[in-house]
Amino acid sequence: MNASMTTLRKNLIIAMSVLGMGAASLTVHAQEAAASAPAASTKMQHEGHRGGNPAERMAKYQARLHDKLKLTAAQEPAWATFTAANAPKKPMGDWKAKREAMAKLSAPERMEQWIAMSKERIANQESRLASLKTFYAVLTPEQKKVFDDSVPGGKHGGHRGGHRGAHDGMQQHPKAG
């Protein structure tokens, strides 16, 4: 056997060993996840991550944030404007029907639809940003810290896993710590 065959054989053995260890690790992880799944599922449902009405979860989130901020009477109008600007604009609709309609379009037409939807999302985000800046400007430094730590991406309100997709802003992340 020549040197290149020996090297190839060694590399193949190493690769197979690494794959075997990875598979074993995944098996153990899957078994641990399966064992804890019922408890985790119950906990997630309890915390409002699954099921339920998104508008209700959002209202509860906003109530908790409002309480944490300890807003003054003078700040209440800015809060009302801010929360109104972050309210869901329209129902999500029938995704299955939308997918079927998109499937009937040509590739360039689908791309045009995706771009139009992206522009709409960006316009919504820009509107939310304007309302956020207006509200944020009336907060005290202490309230700004609470707010920063409580909304998505902050110290206690960051993403905790799960599907996030193209979601944006407070509207889509009602669970803050």
Would you give an account of this structure?
This protein has 177 residues and is mainly alpha-helical. It is built from six helices and no strands. The model is unreliable at 23-34, 39-48 and 158-177 (pLDDT under 50).
Task: Tell me the layout of helices and strands.
Elements (H helix, E strand, L loop, with lengths): L2 H45 L6 H16 L6 H10 L9 H9 L3 H31 L3 H10 L27
The coarse silhouette is: extended
Beta fraction of the residues?
Answer: under 5%
Proportion in helices: 55-70%
Q: Give the end-to-end Cα distance, rounded to a whole number of Å.
A: 63 Å
Instruction: Please tell me how large the radius of gyration is.
Output: 24 Å
Q: Which stretches are poorly predicted, pLDDT < 50 over at least 5 residues? A: 23-34, 39-48, 158-177
How large is the count of helical segments? 6
Number of strands: 0
Biggest beta sheet attributes: none
Q: Which whole number gives the mean pLDDT?
A: 73
Structural class: mainly alpha
- Listing every helix as H and every strand as E from the N terminus to the C terminus, the arrangement reads HHHHHH
